[in-house]
Specification:
The chain has about 130 residues and is mainly β. The protein has a single domain (about 20-120), classed as Jelly Rolls. It is about 0% helix and about 45% strand. Strand 2 (about 30-40) and strand 3 form a beta hairpin.
Length: about 130
């Protein structure tokens, strides 16, 4: 190998043996489970392995970042349909959305953001 080329350090996470960590979403009193994979401190981009437990729905909300969900197991239930393993669903930055698991099974997925993550839930009317 040329002395000009420098191999990069890889980030490797074996998610099969990693411990699930809490991912609190205080606005809806939820504590989701995730395994951090990578985060870029410069851009805020992150990738995590996450699970929505059966029956969980992240009610109407927006994000100041675009994000993608790549379904690994189960079915992702969104405001525009359901998507099983192998589907990748991109949610554009600033859009209003809802998504979660179906009533009968957990949904495990990769969650990928294009910049720093934040969430803003849309108030529901009590009328």
């Amino acid at each position: 190998m040329s002395s000009e080329l420098q191999p990069v350090e890889l980030t490797v996470v074996d998610t099969n043996g990693a411990d699930w960590q809490d991912f609190p979403v205080p606005a809806i009193n939820a504590n989701l489970e995730h395994i951090p994979l990578v985060e870029d401190p410069g851009t805020g981009m992150m990738v995590v392995k996450m699970v929505y437990r059966a029956g969980f729905t992240n009610t109407w909300h927006t994000h100041p970042c675009g994000h993608g969900i790549y379904v690994l197991e189960g079915t992702l239930d969104t405001h525009q349909g359901t998507f099983g393993p192998g589907h990748f669903v991109w949610f554009p930055e600033g859009g209003t959305m809802q998504h979660g698991a179906t009533a009968d099974e957990d949904c495990t997925f990769l969650f990928i953001t294009n910049k720093a993550f934040d969430i803003h839930h849309v108030p529901t009317s009590t009328g």
